[in-house]
From TrEMBL:
InterPro entries reported for this sequence: OxRdtase_Mopterin-bd_dom, OxRdtase_Mopterin-bd_sf
Record's protein name: Oxidoreductase molybdopterin-binding domain-containing protein
Organism whose genome encodes this protein: Pseudooceanicola antarcticus
SUPFAM superfamilies linked to this entry: Oxidoreductase molybdopterin-binding domain
Signal peptide positions on this chain: 1-24
Source organism phylogeny: Bacteria, Pseudomonadati, Pseudomonadota, Alphaproteobacteria, Rhodobacterales
Keyword Signal: yes
């Protein structure tokens, strides 16, 4: 390859990089709206939303944990979601329906970090839906534990 074509390839590559909002491998979460449109969230877009701390016990860890991430309702608003029901899909193909009402009634966090450490797919990441379990006795129930989706990668508006 001559210098000219090498330079053109570089220019094309840079142009592509600047118009692509997020590289596929950087996308942590995809939200499909009722119209079939997909909103993609990389870590940067998730961190651009107001971040909140939620300190709570969980049903699968010992002691109290500090979770950090955006509120689910802010995340859904950012994606333009208005439906009453969502399907949450995890890396391990776990799938469950979530009532959007949960997120207006409670400060549910789409946790990106636990105790200051980034959640990785190896450890409940990239996103773990965390309910304020310690604050509301009705949330201390297996019925809600099902909704603590870990390894969340996709939400679909129903
Ligand atoms: N990604 C994912 N999230 C999940 C599950 C799962 O299998 N995969 N199980 C759910 C269920 S049934 C419960 S009770 C809680 C705790 O599940 P665990 O004890 O298997 O961690 O997480 C929920 N979130
Ligand atoms: Mo469960």
């Amino acid at each position: 390859m001559n210098t000219f074509s090498r330079r053109m390839l570089l220019v094309a590559g840079l142009a592509l990089a600047s118009i692509t909002p997020a590289r596929a491998e950087d996308i942590l979460l995809t939200i499909e709206t009722a119209s079939g449109q997909e909103e993609h969230f990389d870590r940067e877009r998730l961190l651009a939303l107001p971040q909140h701390e939620l300190v709570t016990h969980t049903s699968v860890t010992d002691g109290v944990q500090t979770f950090t991430g955006p509120f689910m309702r802010d995340l859904l608003a950012e994606a333009g979601v208005t439906a009453e029901t969502l399907t949450a899909i995890a890396l391990n193909d776990y799938q469950i329906e979530l009532p959007a009402e949960d997120f207006t009634r409670y400060d549910v966090v789409a946790a990106l970090e636990m105790n200051g450490e980034t959640l990785t797919p190896r450890d409940k990441g990239p996103i773990w839906i965390v309910y304020p379990r310690d604050e509301f006795v009705e949330l201390q129930d297996i019925y809600y534990d099902y909704r603590w989706v870990w390894q969340l990668v996709r939400l679909e508006e129903q």
